[in-house]
What we know:
The chain has helices spanning 2-20, 33-62, 67-70, 78-82, 87-92, 98-102, 104-124, 134-161, 167-193, 202-209, 214-223, 240-256, 261-270, 273-288, 293-322, 324-338, 340-348, 352-380, 386-402, 408-440, and strands spanning 459-462, 467-470.
Amino acid sequence: MQLGLDSAILVGVILLVVGLAFVIPSFAPYRKPMPIVAFLLGISSGFPLTLLIGTMAYWLSKVGVDKSAIGFAIGLTTPYTLKFLWAPLVDKLPIPILTRVFGQRRGWLFFIQALLVIAIWQLGASNPTNGNLAPFAICAIIVAFLSATQDIVIDAYRIEILTDAELPHGTAMNQFGYRTGNLIAGVGTIALASPEGLGLGWAAAYGFTALAVLPAVIGALFAGPGRFHPAHARGGEHGFGAWLNETVISPFREFLGRHGAVLILLFVLIYKVGDAMGQGMLNPMIVELGFTDTEFVAINKGVGFVALIIGSACGAPFIAWLGMGRALLISGLLMMFSNLLFAVLASVGHSPLMLAIAVGTENFTSGIGLTVFVTYLSGLSSLAYTATQFALLSSFAAVGRTWLAAPGGYVAEQLGWVGFWLFTVVIAVPGMLLLWMLWRRGFVVQTVRQPSTEDEGHEVADPEAGQAIPAVPRST
């Protein structure tokens, strides 16, 4: 029921955003073709992980698999944090025939999606039981690897088909698409499989859900090959050593050769630590404060979901109004100070009104921050090595959201809930100070495309002047 409501809310917000695109100039890029393609790419990107984690856990529970065995599913997220290790192949290794016909990005996309459909069909047909989990586990691992690889391709392709003016809006539309894919793989697959729904069984349900790759196929056929130049896919004609250098070493060398590269990576790592730490401990606090399940669903999943997607939609105009540097700073401050409302909730105790205010505010600011931050990571990625560099940056960000935020439970035990939420504000301060330093030294510029040593027409930072200067086009 709640998932159906979420679906209606998501569709409503998307229609509202498209409507605003006709009356508010800063929303206008939402109705352009490429941001809509980014929405289609997001659908195909969003469904596999939900199919693996949420839907799969539900399926295993329904067929009586032990909880200890179900717990292994969290390990399926590992390929998503390690995807930068094989991302260089996506940048430089051509797929026979497909790359020549469709281009590097679409060739890889269609190849991986064909394998992903087969793997999901096999996963659905694996018939898991307590005594027969091996085929299921093998298929799940394969799906996780292919899904992470699909994300590498889609992220790179999204960045390359969007102009600078469209990148924030395309990023927000991609987030909408991702959540649509989540809903398809969640409520859609269960409705297909359940006897209370269409009753098709899990094998057929997983098979039909695998068709969620089609939106990306349609979008890619419409959008064309993107701005990835065929020369970027070369490698091998000068020997394995030269190919290895260009494929694996050059993307990291290019990024680390930029002014302030180490500080930028540190910023990416710690920027959202306070926000992530708070989100990880919110549900335990809600339980401890005595909120009922009904209150939890209505406020945390209802009000919170609405606020999150509205905030995500506002993220792109936020960048258009303020520029990237100011948008990062202000959205970071908004996320940081929104946690103070949870400190107030912790001191007040059981108050549905205060919970609604705190959850709504926090999710709205997080939605803005998510769009701004992903746009920033996209703009950091050189068009010469988009797949590798975005995979590296997003993996760094994932480490910050998970491992650095992991001690949240210990902090809550030691400081209590009021002290914990005050701590999440304090722990976010270093990220804000580092951002201020990067901005003042010219390592973060106001345009969405950030300083790069490779891309024609991009900006490179002049650290002494503290501002960006036009890049000199590189020869090809």
